What we know:
Elements: E1 7-11, H1 24-31, H2 38-43, E2 48-52, E3 55-60, H3 67-82, E4 87-91, H4 115-125, E5 127-131, H5 132-137, E6 149-152, H6 154-161, E7 166-170
Parallel strand pairs: 3-4, 3-7, 4-5, 5-6
Antiparallel strand pairs: 1-2
Helix pairs in contact: 3-4
Amino acid sequence: MAPRSxxxxxxxxxxxxxxxxxxxxxxxxxxxxDDLAHERILTxxxxxxxxxxxxxxxxxxxxxxxxxxxxxxxxxxxTAVASxxxxxxxxTGDATxxxxxxxxxxxxxxxxxxxxxxxxxxxxxGRTTVCTQCAARRGIMxxxxxxxxxxxxxxxxxxxxLGDDVQALVY
Length: 171
């Protein structure tokens, strides 16, 4: 699925300069009046919109011990996936267990989507990475991870978050 636009840059329809009156707007603002033909402005039509897409990297640094933060991180990631955003989820600390089948805890949070549903959504529509050191400390191996989950380290994380048009969130 193609990423959906998260912001739009508006350009004039004719591609020309935005302010051709060389500062007269400031004088009109200060005097409290304007000579603009508002009816003409309203009938010109909408400006041409150029879409700019961004990728989202969500890094989760906690496990079930901080249930609300964990749930919020996965809610944001799953919502972004459902919205067509290109999402990369990074699991660190005790969150690494989310990349192992059968290890997603039931947080029991009222008014929250079950964590297993959120994880499944991100696994199906985004990319998921488990921290190299965190996996090693917990004895997690590539073959024990869910399909499509990879193990990678800080250099790969930095490569992702320092790319063009990337928004990184850390929970």
